[in-house]
Protein backbone atom coordinates (compact mmCIF):
# COMPACT_ATOMS: atom_id res chain seq x y z
CA UNK A 1 0.00 0.00 0.00
CA UNK A 2 1.63 3.31 -0.97
CA UNK A 3 1.88 5.94 1.73
CA UNK A 4 4.21 7.89 3.91
CA UNK A 5 7.52 6.08 4.23
CA UNK A 6 11.21 6.59 4.99
CA UNK A 7 12.61 9.71 3.36
CA UNK A 8 9.23 11.48 3.36
CA UNK A 9 8.55 14.66 5.33
CA UNK A 10 5.75 14.13 7.84
CA UNK A 11 2.68 16.25 7.10
CA UNK A 12 2.27 19.30 9.32
CA UNK A 13 -1.06 18.18 10.78
CA UNK A 14 -2.83 19.91 13.63
CA UNK A 15 -3.93 17.18 16.04
CA UNK A 16 -5.80 16.89 19.35
CA UNK A 17 -3.80 15.27 22.12
CA UNK A 18 -4.07 14.60 25.84
CA UNK A 19 -1.84 17.66 26.28
CA UNK A 20 -3.79 20.01 23.99
CA UNK A 21 -3.67 20.75 20.28
CA UNK A 22 -0.31 20.39 18.60
CA UNK A 23 1.03 21.02 15.12
CA UNK A 24 3.33 18.20 14.24
CA UNK A 25 6.15 20.30 12.78
CA UNK A 26 6.18 22.65 15.74
CA UNK A 27 6.09 19.70 18.15
CA UNK A 28 8.99 17.94 16.42
CA UNK A 29 10.89 21.26 16.40
CA UNK A 30 14.44 20.49 15.30
CA UNK A 31 15.03 17.32 17.26
CA UNK A 32 14.23 13.59 16.93
CA UNK A 33 10.66 12.38 17.49
CA UNK A 34 9.06 8.96 17.84
CA UNK A 35 5.45 8.90 16.67
CA UNK A 36 3.81 5.57 17.52
CA UNK A 37 0.27 4.30 17.02
CA UNK A 38 -1.92 1.70 18.73
CA UNK A 39 -5.12 -0.04 17.65
CA UNK A 40 -7.22 1.21 20.56
CA UNK A 41 -7.65 2.22 24.19
CA UNK A 42 -8.35 -0.35 26.90
CA UNK A 43 -6.81 -3.18 24.89
CA UNK A 44 -4.26 -5.51 26.46
CA UNK A 45 -1.15 -5.27 24.28
CA UNK A 46 -1.53 -1.50 23.82
CA UNK A 47 -1.76 -1.03 27.59
CA UNK A 48 1.58 -2.82 28.03
CA UNK A 49 3.21 -0.90 25.17
CA UNK A 50 2.26 2.56 26.40
CA UNK A 51 3.42 1.62 29.90
CA UNK A 52 6.77 0.39 28.59
CA UNK A 53 7.16 3.55 26.51
CA UNK A 54 6.55 5.61 29.67
CA UNK A 55 9.18 3.54 31.52
CA UNK A 56 11.71 4.11 28.74
CA UNK A 57 10.80 7.80 28.20
CA UNK A 58 13.75 9.17 30.18
CA UNK A 59 16.15 7.11 28.02
CA UNK A 60 14.64 8.69 24.90
CA UNK A 61 14.60 12.22 26.36
CA UNK A 62 18.30 11.84 27.34
CA UNK A 63 19.02 11.25 23.65
CA UNK A 64 16.99 14.31 22.60
CA UNK A 65 14.05 12.22 21.36
CA UNK A 66 10.46 13.40 21.89
CA UNK A 67 7.57 10.92 22.13
CA UNK A 68 4.02 11.17 20.84
CA UNK A 69 1.51 8.31 20.86
CA UNK A 70 -1.69 7.88 18.87
CA UNK A 71 -4.77 5.80 19.46
CA UNK A 72 -8.00 6.34 17.58
CA UNK A 73 -10.30 6.80 20.58
CA UNK A 74 -11.36 10.18 21.97
CA UNK A 75 -9.45 12.26 24.51
CA UNK A 76 -11.74 11.43 27.42
CA UNK A 77 -11.15 7.76 26.79
CA UNK A 78 -7.38 8.33 26.55
CA UNK A 79 -7.35 10.17 29.89
CA UNK A 80 -9.23 7.32 31.63
CA UNK A 81 -7.01 4.73 29.96
CA UNK A 82 -3.80 6.44 31.17
CA UNK A 83 -4.86 5.54 34.74
CA UNK A 84 -4.88 1.85 33.78
CA UNK A 85 -1.57 2.13 31.94
CA UNK A 86 0.14 3.73 34.93
CA UNK A 87 -1.41 1.25 37.38
CA UNK A 88 -0.28 -1.69 35.28
CA UNK A 89 3.34 -0.51 34.87
CA UNK A 90 4.65 0.52 38.28
CA UNK A 91 6.61 3.76 38.23
CA UNK A 92 5.40 4.64 34.73
CA UNK A 93 4.07 8.16 34.16
CA UNK A 94 2.57 8.78 30.76
CA UNK A 95 4.02 12.26 30.35
CA UNK A 96 4.03 12.19 26.54
CA UNK A 97 0.97 13.35 24.57
CA UNK A 98 -1.41 10.84 22.99
CA UNK A 99 -3.18 11.89 19.79
CA UNK A 100 -6.85 11.09 19.37
CA UNK A 101 -8.17 10.19 15.91
CA UNK A 102 -11.80 9.12 16.18
CA UNK A 103 -12.46 9.89 12.48
CA UNK A 104 -9.41 7.82 11.40
CA UNK A 105 -8.18 10.68 9.18
CA UNK A 106 -4.80 11.16 10.80
CA UNK A 107 -3.80 7.50 10.55
CA UNK A 108 -4.46 7.58 6.81
CA UNK A 109 -2.16 10.58 6.34
CA UNK A 110 0.55 9.03 8.50
CA UNK A 111 0.35 5.56 6.88
CA UNK A 112 -0.68 3.94 10.15
CA UNK A 113 -3.81 2.07 9.05
CA UNK A 114 -4.15 -1.67 9.74
CA UNK A 115 -6.14 -3.09 6.81
CA UNK A 116 -7.03 -6.20 8.85
CA UNK A 117 -8.36 -4.55 12.01
CA UNK A 118 -11.73 -2.79 11.95
CA UNK A 119 -14.40 -1.63 14.35
CA UNK A 120 -17.78 0.00 13.66
CA UNK A 121 -16.03 3.32 12.80
CA UNK A 122 -13.67 1.84 10.21
CA UNK A 123 -10.09 0.64 10.15
CA UNK A 124 -8.00 0.76 13.30
CA UNK A 125 -4.41 1.96 13.53
CA UNK A 126 -1.66 -0.61 13.15
CA UNK A 127 1.25 -0.73 15.58
CA UNK A 128 3.19 1.72 13.43
CA UNK A 129 6.17 3.69 14.69
CA UNK A 130 7.95 6.42 12.77
CA UNK A 131 11.28 7.79 13.91
CA UNK A 132 11.44 11.35 12.57
CA UNK A 133 14.74 13.17 12.23
CA UNK A 134 15.45 16.81 13.08
CA UNK A 135 14.71 17.62 9.39
CA UNK A 136 11.13 16.24 9.90
CA UNK A 137 11.76 13.35 7.53
CA UNK A 138 11.01 9.76 8.45
CA UNK A 139 14.27 7.93 9.09
CA UNK A 140 12.85 4.53 10.07
CA UNK A 141 9.41 2.92 10.37
CA UNK A 142 8.10 -0.18 12.13
CA UNK A 143 4.82 -1.70 11.03
CA UNK A 144 3.53 -4.42 13.34
CA UNK A 145 0.13 -6.10 13.45
CA UNK A 146 -2.21 -5.80 16.44
CA UNK A 147 -1.14 -9.21 17.76
CA UNK A 148 2.57 -8.32 18.17
CA UNK A 149 3.69 -5.82 20.79
CA UNK A 150 6.86 -3.87 20.11
CA UNK A 151 10.14 -4.19 22.00
CA UNK A 152 11.26 -0.85 23.44
CA UNK A 153 14.87 -2.09 23.71
CA UNK A 154 14.78 -2.44 19.93
CA UNK A 155 13.33 1.06 19.54
CA UNK A 156 16.14 2.46 21.70
CA UNK A 157 18.74 0.42 19.80
CA UNK A 158 17.64 1.76 16.42
CA UNK A 159 17.55 5.34 17.75
CA UNK A 160 21.19 4.93 18.77
CA UNK A 161 22.05 3.51 15.35
CA UNK A 162 20.28 6.35 13.52
CA UNK A 163 21.89 9.01 15.67
CA UNK A 164 25.39 7.56 15.21
CA UNK A 165 24.88 7.27 11.45
CA UNK A 166 23.75 10.89 11.33
CA UNK A 167 27.02 12.02 12.95
CA UNK A 168 29.57 9.73 11.25
CA UNK A 169 29.91 8.04 7.86
CA UNK A 170 29.09 4.66 9.38
CA UNK A 171 26.39 2.01 9.50
CA UNK A 172 25.57 -0.56 12.18
CA UNK A 173 25.88 -4.26 11.29
CA UNK A 174 23.55 -7.16 12.07
CA UNK A 175 22.68 -7.59 15.75
CA UNK A 176 24.67 -4.45 16.61
CA UNK A 177 24.29 -3.15 20.14
CA UNK A 178 25.46 0.22 21.49
CA UNK A 179 29.16 -0.10 22.28
CA UNK A 180 29.83 -2.68 19.54
CA UNK A 181 32.03 -1.82 16.53
CA UNK A 182 30.31 -0.16 13.57
CA UNK A 183 31.12 -0.46 9.86
CA UNK A 184 32.50 2.33 7.70
CA UNK A 185 30.17 3.39 4.86
CA UNK A 186 31.10 1.86 1.49
CA UNK A 187 31.41 5.29 -0.17
CA UNK A 188 34.33 6.23 2.11
CA UNK A 189 37.73 5.37 0.58
CA UNK A 190 40.50 3.92 2.74
CA UNK A 191 42.38 7.23 2.42
CA UNK A 192 39.36 9.18 3.66
CA UNK A 193 38.76 6.63 6.41
CA UNK A 194 42.25 7.26 7.82
CA UNK A 195 41.34 10.94 8.29
CA UNK A 196 37.76 10.36 9.42
CA UNK A 197 38.58 7.64 11.92
CA UNK A 198 41.94 8.49 13.53
CA UNK A 199 41.18 5.81 16.14
CA UNK A 200 41.84 3.32 13.30
CA UNK A 201 39.80 0.61 11.60
CA UNK A 202 40.11 -3.07 10.83
CA UNK A 203 39.41 -4.48 7.40
CA UNK A 204 37.95 -8.00 7.17
CA UNK A 205 40.05 -10.36 5.07
CA UNK A 206 37.46 -11.75 2.64
CA UNK A 207 37.89 -14.29 -0.20
CA UNK A 208 37.10 -11.56 -2.76
CA UNK A 209 39.98 -9.45 -1.36
CA UNK A 210 37.63 -6.49 -1.70
CA UNK A 211 38.15 -4.18 1.27
CA UNK A 212 34.55 -3.20 1.90
CA UNK A 213 33.94 -4.58 5.39
CA UNK A 214 35.78 -2.21 7.71
CA UNK A 215 35.09 -2.02 11.43
CA UNK A 216 35.75 0.92 13.71
CA UNK A 217 34.51 2.34 17.00
CA UNK A 218 32.69 5.65 17.33
C1 LIG B 1 -4.30 -5.38 21.97
O1 LIG B 1 -3.83 -4.27 22.21
O2 LIG B 1 -4.15 -6.29 22.75
C2 LIG B 1 -5.08 -5.64 20.71
C3 LIG B 1 -5.73 -4.59 20.06
C4 LIG B 1 -6.45 -4.87 18.92
C5 LIG B 1 -6.51 -6.16 18.42
C6 LIG B 1 -5.83 -7.18 19.07
C7 LIG B 1 -5.10 -6.92 20.21
Automatic annotation (TrEMBL):
Reactions accelerated catalytically: a hydroperoxide + [thioredoxin]-dithiol = an alcohol + [thioredoxin]-disulfide + H2O
Family statement drawn from the similarity comment of this UniProt entry: Belongs to the peroxiredoxin family. Prx6 subfamily.
GO cellular component: cytosol; mitochondrion
Top class in the EC scheme: oxidoreductase
Keywords: Antioxidant, Oxidoreductase, Peroxidase, Redox-active center
EC number: 1.11.1.24
Gene3D superfamilies: Antioxidant, Horf6, Chain A, domain2 (3.30.1020.10), Glutaredoxin (3.40.30.10)
Name of the featured protein: Peroxiredoxin
SUPFAM superfamilies: Thioredoxin-like
Stated role: Thiol-specific peroxidase that catalyzes the reduction of hydrogen peroxide and organic hydroperoxides to water and alcohols, respectively. Seems to contribute to the inhibition of germination during stress.
Active site (catalytic residues): 46
One MF term in the entry's GO annotations: thioredoxin-dependent peroxiredoxin activity
GO terms under biological process: cell redox homeostasis
Boundaries of every Thioredoxin domain copy: 4-164
Cited InterPro entries: AhpC/TSA (IPR000866), Peroxiredoxin_AhpC-typ (IPR024706), Peroxiredoxin_C (IPR019479), PRX_1cys (IPR045020), Thioredoxin-like_sf (IPR036249), Thioredoxin_domain (IPR013766)
Amino acid sequence: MPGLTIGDTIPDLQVDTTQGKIKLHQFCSDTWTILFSHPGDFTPVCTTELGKMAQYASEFYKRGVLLVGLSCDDLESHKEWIKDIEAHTPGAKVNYPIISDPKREIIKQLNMVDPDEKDSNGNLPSRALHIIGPDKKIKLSFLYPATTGRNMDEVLRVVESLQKASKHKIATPANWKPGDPVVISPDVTNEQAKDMFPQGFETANLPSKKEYLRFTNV
